[in-house]
């Protein structure tokens, strides 16, 4: 009896040792598969080979290898996605960075060499109403939204390369989440307000013959004297029509990307992304020049968009044709200050 029990114990120990050996062998196989992704894929899907992938890419393998989305006719491997990636990574991203950084460098160089454009004559102290309160409110709202969209757009384009290594994955992920939220929700609002502003300013930006002279004289940088200009000069009209063309293209493509549930195909989304990126990066670069000229670059320009009024001297030097039309309506600065009263707003400026 004791011998029988002894043999049973030995048999159980042998069986346990065999199970441990098999477990170790299986674990080594799993580790080997993890170390070799190709072997793991071959083990999981042994029928997939290079010939099959070529068939999948060409759409020759039937419905089992097609996109699972409803009514989709795309193959499991979509070559257009790689084309879109190549255009974005090889052309749009590098040349967009060159355009924006190049504009910043050009502005800095121009400021160092030429400096701020000051008024040639002393101020008269008499003011002309240039921008109404409605237009100023629209302008500053659109400008603020533009800056927010430009910053968030640049983060979407370059943040992974520049900010992720700097802040780490956690902070970068939170930053990108907020970036996409701001960009996606403020974009449609910017588009609507920009169209309203463009319609409001259309009558001032119709091209005229004297605009060619303005360009020939480089806006006053070439030769003596200031070229003729109406309410808007040639440079301002170029900026207006850039917003009215490239800006509208950015808005339309942005709507296509923001609302992907209206039946647009994948190729449409890819082209919308390319148009959106090219237009937005180009407008951002040009906007830097517009911001410079309208603030520190030209004496007297910023106060027109902050207070609504400009000095007679500024009007004569920069927009002489417009000045001839409205010079009889000039009022002393003191009168404007009295009309504003305690509220700080002018009746004229609210028109």
Automatic annotation (TrEMBL):
Keyword Cell membrane recorded: yes
Secretion signal, residue range per the UniProt entry: 1-32
Residues annotated as transmembrane: 91-113, 133-158, 185-202, 238-257, 269-293
GO cellular component, one term: plasma membrane
Principal subcellular localization: membrane
Annotated GO MF terms: electron transfer activity; formate dehydrogenase (NAD+) activity; formate dehydrogenase (quinone) activity; metal ion binding
Gene3D superfamilies: Transmembrane di-heme cytochromes, Chain C
This protein's record includes keyword Hydrolase: no
Cofactor(s) the record lists: heme
Classification via Pfam families: Ni_hydr_CYTB (PF01292)
Record's bilayer topology term: Multi-pass membrane protein
UniProt keyword list: Cell membrane, Electron transport, Heme, Iron, Membrane, Metal-binding, Signal, Transmembrane, Transmembrane helix, Transport
Residues of the Cytochrome b561 bacterial/Ni-hydrogenase domain: 130-308
Compartments, as annotated in UniProt: Cell membrane
Gene Ontology biological-process entries: anaerobic respiration; formate oxidation; respiratory electron transport chain
InterPro entries: Cyt_b561_bac/Ni-Hgenase, Di-haem_cyt_TM, FDH_cytochrome_b556_subunit, Formate_DH_gsu
PANTHER family: FORMATE DEHYDROGENASE GAMMA SUBUNIT, FORMATE DEHYDROGENASE, NITRATE-INDUCIBLE, CYTOCHROME B556 FDN SUBUNIT
Similarity field: Belongs to the formate dehydrogenase gamma subunit family.
NCBIfam families the record matches: formate-DH-gamm
Protein name (database record): Formate dehydrogenase gamma subunit
């Amino acid at each position: 009896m004791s011998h029988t029990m002894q043999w049973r114990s030995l048999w159980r120990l042998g069986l346990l040792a065999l199970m441990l050996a098999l477990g170790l062998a299986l674990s080594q196989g799993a580790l080997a598969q993890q170390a070799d992704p190709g072997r793991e894929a071959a083990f999981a899907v042994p029928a997939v080979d290079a010939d099959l992938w070529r068939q999948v890419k060409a759409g020759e393998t039937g419905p089992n290898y097609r996109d699972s989305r409803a009514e989709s006719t795309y193959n499991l491997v979509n070559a257009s996605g790689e084309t879109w990636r190549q255009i974005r990574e090889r052309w749009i991203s590098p040349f967009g960075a060159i355009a924006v950084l190049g504009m910043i460098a050009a502005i800095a160089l121009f400021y160092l060499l030429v400096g701020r454009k000051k008024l040639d004559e002393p101020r008269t102290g008499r003011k002309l109403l240039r921008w109404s309160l409605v237009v100023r409110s629209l302008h500053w709202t659109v400008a603020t939204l533009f800056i927010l969209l430009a910053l968030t757009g640049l983060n979407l384009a370059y943040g992974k390369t520049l900010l992720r290594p700097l802040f780490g994955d956690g902070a970068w992920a939170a930053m990108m989440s907020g970036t996409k939220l701001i960009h996606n929700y403020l974009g449609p609002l910017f588009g609507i307000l920009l169209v309203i502003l463009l319609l409001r300013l259309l009558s001032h930006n119709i091209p005229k013959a004297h605009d060619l002279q303005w360009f020939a004289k480089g806006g006053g940088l070439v030769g003596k004297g200031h070229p003729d200009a109406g309410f808007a000069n040639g440079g301002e009209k170029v900026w207006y029509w850039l917003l009215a063309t490239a800006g509208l293209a950015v808005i339309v493509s942005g709507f296509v990307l923001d609302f992907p549930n209206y039946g647009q195909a994948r190729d449409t989304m890819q082209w919308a992304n390319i148009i959106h990126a090219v237009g937005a990066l180009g407008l951002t670069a040009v906007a830097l020049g517009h911001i410079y000229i309208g603030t520190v670059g030209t004496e007297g320009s910023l106060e027109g968009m902050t207070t609504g009024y400009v000095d007679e001297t500024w009007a004569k030097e920069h927009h002489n044709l417009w000045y001839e039309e409205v010079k009889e309506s000039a009022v002393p600065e003191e009168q404007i200050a009295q009309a504003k009263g305690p509220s700080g707003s002018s009746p004229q400026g609210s028109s």
